[in-house]
């Protein structure tokens, strides 16, 4: 890896006029200079594109093309990327200032590591921090049972593994990020959890997490990931293992349990 690796950041945005400027500023105001920024907008009609154009001199590529959903939009964005480290930031989330510099130092000091990830803050629609959310020390078997969580906007990965797994699954409409992570781990990726907060993850009524609108699709995704990892279907006997692994998750990450007890789950229930 180069002395100063190029970081490719992709943001997908669709009708996010309320949040897109804050997202863009969190990227362009980073203290790490070797960044290429790519924004994909498949057809916003709410004024988002006016804001994107306002910062066009700070954006490497702007893609105004229709897509087949978020995963497809991200794949389009990364096809334009030429960096050593890849990262994507949803248009309603933000990066903590100084996050990129810290992440690059971790990669440079740990050349055998392919994925670096950390924790995040949950923010509301007014950008107020309402709680912390913690990534788990990743374990592929616990992940099969939904008991090993990685905070997406605090996750960075090497370009070679993204290409090795051929990017995001365009058919995945609810958890394209989780599937990418699992695919990279199954392909041999080594990951490292850093106990720092790198991003702000926005949860509000219209967001995918806040609305719970993909609840049933998410359940199907969970079953599919189980089969991908375990090479068999989920069955009744797995329920007890799922319960045990979730207990282990809370024992390993007691801070996350405390946040959940005091503030509730960040995920909307049906």
Structural key phrases:
single chain, 270 residues, alpha/beta, Spore Coat Polysaccharide Biosynthesis Protein SpsA, Chain A, 9-stranded mixed beta sheet, globular
Topology:
Elements: E1 7-12, H1 20-28, E2 35-40, H2 48-54, E3 61-63, H3 70-79, E4 85-88, E5 94-95, H4 99-109, E6 115-123, E7 129-133, H5 140-144, E8 155-158, H6 159-164, H7 176-186, E9 191-202, H8 208-211, H9 215-230, H10 238-252, H11 254-263
Helix pairs in contact: 10-11
Q: Your description of this structure?
A:
- With 270 residues, the protein is an alpha/beta fold.
- It has a single domain, classed as Spore Coat Polysaccharide Biosynthesis Protein SpsA, Chain A, CATH 3.90.550.
- It has 11 helices and 9 strands.
- Strands 1, 2, 3, 4, 5, 6, 7, 8 and 9 form a 9-stranded mixed sheet that branches.
- Helix 1 (20-28) links the parallel strand 1 and strand 2.
- Helix 10 packs across helix 11.
- The model has no long low-confidence stretch (mean pLDDT 92).
Describe this structure in a few short sentences:
This protein is α/β, with parallel strands linked by helices. It is about 40% helix and about 20% strand. The radius of gyration is 18 Å and the shape is globular.
């Amino acid at each position: 890896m180069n002395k100063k690796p190029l970081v490719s950041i992709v943001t997908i945005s669709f009708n996010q006029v309320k949040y897109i400027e804050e997202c863009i500023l969190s990227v362009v105001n980073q203290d790490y200079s070797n960044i290429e920024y790519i924004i994909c907008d498949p057809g916003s009609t709410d004024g988002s594109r006016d804001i994107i154009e306002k910062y066009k001199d700070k954006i490497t590529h702007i893609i105004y093309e229709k897509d087949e959903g978020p995963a497809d939009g991200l794949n389009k964005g990364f096809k334009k990327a030429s960096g050593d480290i890849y990262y994507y930031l949803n248009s309603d989330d933000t990066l903590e200032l100084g996050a990129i510099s810290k992440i690059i130092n971790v990669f440079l000091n740990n050349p055998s590591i392919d994925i670096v990830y950390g924790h995040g803050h949950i923010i509301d629609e007014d950008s107020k921090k309402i709680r912390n959310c913690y990534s788990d020390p990743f374990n592929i078997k616990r992940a099969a049972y939904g008991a090993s969580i990685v905070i997406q906007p605090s996750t960075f990965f090497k370009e070679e593994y993204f290409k090795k797994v051929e990017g995001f699954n365009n058919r995945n409409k609810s958890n394209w990020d989780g599937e990418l992570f699992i695919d990279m781990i199954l392909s041999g990726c080594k990951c490292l959890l850093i106990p720092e907060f790198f991003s702000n993850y926005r949860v509000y009524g219209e967001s995918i997490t806040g609305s719970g609108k993909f609840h049933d699709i998410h359940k199907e995704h969970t079953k599919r990931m189980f089969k991908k990892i375990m090479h068999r279907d989920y069955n009744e006997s797995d329920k007890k293992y799922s319960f045990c692994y979730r207990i282990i998750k809370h024992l390993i990450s007691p801070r996350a349990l405390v946040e959940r007890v005091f503030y509730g789950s960040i995920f909307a229930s049906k």
